[in-house]
Design goal:
By secondary structure, the chain is α/β, with parallel strands linked by helices. Helix content is 35%, strand content 18%. A hairpin with a 4-residue loop joins β1 and β2. The N and C termini lie far apart (59 Å).
């Protein structure tokens, strides 16, 4: 049986049984992450700033979502010298299927990379937000489950982040990225809400299916000049290698400027962790102009 046929049958069974998790044919994107996590013992108090260049992480910030009718969470990195007297650019990072808001902090060196790159002056200070996206493809009504996640993200999540923390509220000061399911969310949000984001960094990205409209259909509805910058990065042994190649070819055909990086790797944290400094650098380069002008 071909992979495509197996995928369709798996999705059909998930819908028929009313499953909330619509990607049964894809291993959860946090599988195997214990093997690639840091060898050192985790900091028992990740929010401490014992070292002058060490940022803090506010984990599991809660929102009582009226749109979703449930409590939602996000986690957030604040740079070492964060102060309410200054406004900061923001990077939103979306997790993959089977993960949650803490994947980036537990299975990646994101906080350490940010600390080091800010301390060295490679990138300006920034806030990094990692929301819980459930298994809902970052869209409304995935497989008819009546969960309006996209509405929640744009009407409640962003508003909550910007009301609690000192965040700069302009397009140039927002970048979005993600991997796998989160890669799809980042692409979708960056294109459909291009007035809010200056760049999209999508890793190992789902391009379509699983209850979501294919990005190849969505992107045709927008002018290339309106869209943010885009990077697609995918391993040559990934589930979605071929789809990313096809999508990159379409973007080129449509005259949409983007970077397409294909390198050795699979669908795992080893690959994604190697992307993290690149995402920070890309965001930092974009943020430098607004940081210099605003502060």
């Amino acid at each position: 049986m071909s992979l495509r046929v197996f995928t369709c049958l798996s999705v059909f069974l998930a819908v028929s049984l009313g499953c909330e998790k619509p990607l049964p044919d894809i291993p959860e994107d946090n599988q195997g992450q214990q093997e690639v996590a840091k060898d050192a013992e985790p900091d028992p108090n990740p929010g401490s700033q014992g070292a002058s260049n060490k940022g803090s992480i506010d984990k599991d910030v809660t929102i009582q979502s009226k749109i979703l009718g449930r409590e939602m969470k996000y986690s957030l990195y604040l740079p070492a010298n964060y102060t309410e007297g200054k406004q900061y650019p923001v990077l939103y990072l979306l997790h993959g299927y089977g993960g949650d808001q803490n994947d980036w902090w537990e299975f990646d060196d994101l906080a350490d990379d940010a600390d080091a790159m800010i301390a060295s002056g490679e990138i300006p200070e920034m806030v990094i937000v990692t929301p819980d996206g459930g298994t809902w493809m970052y869209i409304d009504n995935c497989y008819g489950n009546s969960i309006n996640y996209e509405q929640y993200f744009f009407q409640e999540l962003i508003a909550d982040v910007e009301s609690r923390y000192s965040i700069r509220r302009n397009r140039q000061s927002r970048v979005i990225g993600g991997f796998s399911m989160g890669g799809y969310g980042a692409l979708r949000y960056g294109v459909m809400h291009h007035e809010l984001f200056s760049y999209v960094y999508a890793m190992s990205s789902v391009i379509g299916g699983y209850g979501a409209v294919d990005m190849s259909e969505i992107v045709r509805n927008y002018l290339p000049s309106d869209l943010p910058g885009i990077t697609l990065e995918c391993g040559d042994r990934d589930y979605f290698t071929y789809e990313n190649r096809e999508f990159s070819a379409l973007l080129k055909e449509l005259g949409i400027a983007h970077d397409h990086i294909e390198r050795s790797g699979g669908h795992d944290w080893t690959f994604w962790s190697a992307c993290t400094p690149k995402i920070l650098q890309k965001a930092g380069d974009l943020f430098k102009d607004t940081t210099d002008k605003s502060n």
